[in-house]
Amino acid sequence: MEIIEVSPRDGLQNEAVLVSTEDKITLIERSIAAGLRRIEATSFVHPKRVPQMADAEAVMAGVPRRADVSYIGLVLNRRGFDRAIAAGVDEVNCVVVASETFSQRNQGMSVADSVRTVRDLADDARAAGVALSVTIATAFGCPFEGEVPEATVVDLARQVGEFGVDEIALADTIGVGVPTQVARLVAGVGAVAPGVRLRCHFHNTRNTGYANAVAALDAGVTVLDASTGGIGGCPFAPAATGNIATEDLVYLLDRSGVESGVDLRQLIETADWLSGVLGSTVPGQLARAGVFPG
């Protein structure tokens, strides 16, 4: 299982504390030291909308450059894409929301417009030599519209898959999904985008995040997003709480005999360090409970 570390972006974007650029870079360095090799480093969005990400260029200027580490920048539009390329990201992650209301709240455009944005950026990403992934947000439910038809999610995956994207991520933005949904959506997306790598992004808002991770694993998914300490959420989704914690996920995988290549004890140390940076205890359980056996 490959784990994408999202704490520097999705983790920090919903925190009340404005974390310094230096601490963000330290978080990334700690993640690399623990064995994580794909890291969502920042997002290139308007600083007035997400002030926690206002230093995107400075973060990218300070991260260690290694051939075995890939940095992902999240973008919502052409302006963000151009900034990400100029800053030297290795991968660009675009967002397509599966519900109209949240699409307008999150990125100020319709679902159809966001699909067109992906289409317009696909060739430019290839020309720039960067990988292009698409996250389908609210794939398991919307905070404003409620249930999201699975057929809608599958059709969006079909559309973006036809643009030649490298990866599609199914995101449970507000943590409402359950394992049966995971199995159905993974199967549905796999059928319409068979040549595209599939990953999943879960939140543990209702204590289903880790069960969903196991369901994704059982369904054949080999890439999962996670956030050290379990921090994160979406500033445009009411009551959206943290991502699944990287250290808790690695414990689950290790005890299940699934290789991740990530050092669990270093993750726990980083989660403890992150609590100090944020001034509050992170939601992840392992930093408090410890590993087993000890």
TrEMBL record:
It comes from the Bacteria. It is an enzyme of class 4 (lyase). GO terms for molecular function: hydroxymethylglutaryl-CoA lyase activity; metal ion binding. Its EC number is 4.1.3.4. InterPro entries: Aldolase_TIM, HMGL, PYR_CT. The keyword Lyase applies. The keyword Metal-binding applies. Keywords: Lyase, Metal-binding. Residues 1-268 form the Pyruvate carboxyltransferase domain. PROSITE patterns: PYR_CT. SUPFAM superfamilies: Aldolase. GO terms for biological process: ketone body biosynthetic process; L-leucine catabolic process. Pfam families: HMGL-like. NCBIfam families: PRK05692.1. PANTHER family: HYDROXYMETHYLGLUTARYL-COA LYASE (PTHR42738). Belongs to the HMG-CoA lyase family. This is Hydroxymethylglutaryl-CoA lyase. It comes from Micromonospora polyrhachis.
